Amino acid sequence: MKQKNLELAVGLFVALGLAAFFILAITVSDLSSLGDDKGYRVTAHFENIGGLKARAPVTLGGVRIGRVVGIGLDPQSYEAVVTMSIDPKYDRLPTDSSASILTSGLLGEQYVGLEPGGMDSYLKEGGTLKLTQSALVLEKLIGRVFTNMASGDPTPSKTP
Amino acid sequence: MMASLAELGRFVLDRLGRLGRANLFLLQLLRALSFLFRRPSLLVKQLHAVGVLSLPIILVSGLFVGMVLGLQGYANLVDFGATSSLGTVVALSLIRELGPVLTALLYAGRAGSALTAEIGLMRATEQLASMQMMAVDPFPRVLAPRFLAGCIAVPLLTGIFTAIGILGGYLVAVVQLGVDGGSFWAQMQAKVQLLADVGNGVLIKSTVFGLVANWIALFEGYQAQPTSEGVSLATTRTVVDTSLAVLGLDFLLTALMFGEW
C-alpha cells in the first residue's frame, strides 16, 4: 500500500510537470512559430529597412498574416531584400500589393505592413512585391527639418 | 615565499584531482544507469524524495516570484504607458532566466543537500563499504537511481515553477492592478517563442542545471570525509558549488542562446 501511494504521488508529480510544459507551449508561446515552413515565401526590395529584424510580423490591415524570415542585401542594386513567409490561409493577395516598413507605436518594434492592390492575379511562392516604402528613419527626418530651417524658409517668425 | 608558492601548487593540484575524480564519478554513474531499466521501483522512490517533496517550496516560491515580477514590472512600465506588455516581461524573464535558475538553486538547497548528507552518512556508517563486501555495486543500486531521478525532477520542477510564476504575475497584474487581461496574454503569445524561448530556456537550461546539481550533490556525498564534520562540510559545499556552477553556466548558456554573436 505504501508503494502504491508513492507511485501515485510520483505519477501526479510527473503529470503536473508535463502539464506545466503543455501550458507553457499552448498559452504562453505561440505555436504558430513552429509552422514557419508551411507559409509561402514572398520577397520585397527596400531602399532602407531601418531596424527591421528577422521574425518581425507581417500584417495586412493590422492582422498578422506572416513573418519576416530573412533579410539580405542585393549585391547589384544595394537594396535590402526582405523575405517573408505568408500563412497559406491568405493566398489571395494581389500581385500589385505594396509593402511598407512601419513602427508599432512611437518606440515599438518595426514590422512589414502590406496594402492590397487591385490585380486579379495572386501572389505565389517566390513572388515579389514591386511597390515598397522604406522605413522612416528618424535621423534623416530630423536632418531634413534642420536643412529646411538652415536654408531660410520664409517662416512667419522670421518676417520682421 | 616558497611556502606560499607550494601552497598555491597544492591548491591547484588538489582542485585538478577533484575535477578528475568528479568526471570519473560521472562516467561510472552514467554507466550504471542501464540497471534502472531492470529495477524501475528504485527510481520511483527517489523521484518521490527529490521531486514530489520539493513541490511545496517550488510552488510557493514560483507564485511569489511571479507576483513580485508583476508588481515591479507594473511600477516601471506604467510610466511609459506600456503596461500591456507586462505579460511579455513576466513570461520572458521567468522562462529565460528566473525559472531555470531559481528552481536549480532551490533544488540544491532542498534536495541536493539532502542527497549529499544521505550519501555522506551512508559512507560514514560504512553502508556503502558493506554493500561492496557483499559484492553489490553501490553505483547502480544507490547512486544511479538518485542521479536519474534528480535529472528528471529538475526540468519538471522548472516547468511547474515557470507556469505558476506566470499565473502569479497574471494574478497581480490583471486581477489586482487592472491591466487588460486580453493584451496581457496576447502580447505574451506574440513575443514568446516555443523553441527559442521555452525550448532553450526551460528545457535545455533546466536539463543542464539538473545534471550539474545532482552530479555535484552525489559526488560531494561520495567524497565526504566519513565524520560528522566531513558530512556537514560536504553538504555546505554542495549548496555553494551548485549555486556557483548554476549561475556561471547560466551566463554561458544565455550568451550562447540569446547573445547575438
Summarize this entry quickly:
The complex is a heterodimer of chains A (160) and B (261). Chain A has 160 residues and is α/β, with parallel strands linked by helices. Chain A contains 2 helices and 8 strands, in the order αββββββββα.
Topology:
The complex is a heterodimer of chains A (160) and B (261).
Chain A: H1 2-28, E1 40-46, E2 57-60, E3 63-73, E4 80-86, E5 98-103, E6 110-115, E7 127-129, E8 131-133, H2 138-150
Parallel strand pairs in A: 1-7, 2-6, 5-8
Antiparallel strand pairs in A: 1-4, 2-3, 3-4, 5-6
Chain B: H1 2-32, H2 40-50, H3 55-77, H4 86-124, H5 127-133, H6 138-176, H7 181-191, H8 194-223, H9 228-258
Helix pairs in contact in B: 1-6, 2-6, 3-4, 3-6, 4-6, 4-7, 4-8, 4-9, 6-8, 8-9
Describe the structure.
The complex is a heterodimer of chains A (160) and B (261). With 160 residues, chain A is of the alpha/beta class. Chain A has helices at residues 2-28, 138-150, and strands at 40-46, 57-60, 63-73, 80-86, 98-103, 110-115, 127-129, 131-133. The longest helix of chain A has 27 residues, at 2-28. In chain A, 20% of the residues are buried. The relative contact order of chain B is 0.16. Chains A and B meet through helix 1 of A and helix 2, helix 6, helix 7 and helix 8 of B.
